[in-house]
Amino acid sequence: MDAIVLLKEDHKTVEKLFKQFEQAGPDAHRTKQKIVAQVVEELTAHTYIEETIFYPAARAGAPDTTGHILESVEEEEKDWFPQVRRSMGRNRLQELGEEMAEAKGEAPRDPLGIPSASS
Ligand SMILES: [Fe+2]
């Protein structure tokens, strides 16, 4: 799987969970708790593969695209991902995506388990 497609799918998964949360209604405490726990797990694994694999690879493979600070996930998807795609090319992104998919299976699900949480 393509690295950028993988990251975008993660984003979609989290958006879906947010919608479920909104639709759960004011009294569905247990449901909401479960959804929040899922969001935390998803984002933790996502952040982990981004920080340990995707960002370093993009810094190396698309160095002139990484000078600005990303303000939001939307900016990441709309501005940065297309630039990275142009610079890195399909084959490299495929390779990277496979590496990320594998790493995701073993990624921490607890936010304190990711390197940036303790720095
Ligand atoms: Fe992301």
Q: Counting H and I runs of at least 4 residues, what is the number of helices?
A: 3
The secondary-structure element order is HHH
**Largest beta sheet, briefly?**
none
Shape: elongated
State the distance separating the first and last CA atoms. Answer: 31 Å
Our estimate of the beta-strand percent is under 5%
For the secondary structure, the number of strands is: 0
The level of helicity is: over 70%
By secondary-structure content and strand pairing, the structural class works out as mainly alpha
Number of domains: 1
Associated small molecules: fe (ii) ion
Overall pLDDT level: 90
Low-pLDDT regions: none
Radius of gyration: 16 Å
Write the layout of secondary structure elements.
Layout: H1 3-23, H2 29-61, H3 73-105
Helix pairs in contact: 1-2, 1-3, 2-3
Fe (ii) ion binds next to α1, α2 and α3.
Question: How would you explain this protein's 3D organization?
Answer:
By secondary structure, the chain is an all-alpha fold. The protein has one domain (3-113). The protein is built from 3 helices and no strands. α1 (3-23) runs antiparallel to α2 and α1 (3-23) packs across α3. The chain is elongated. The mean pLDDT is 90. Bound molecules: fe (ii) ion. Fe (ii) ion is lined by residues 7, 11, 46, 50, 73, 76.
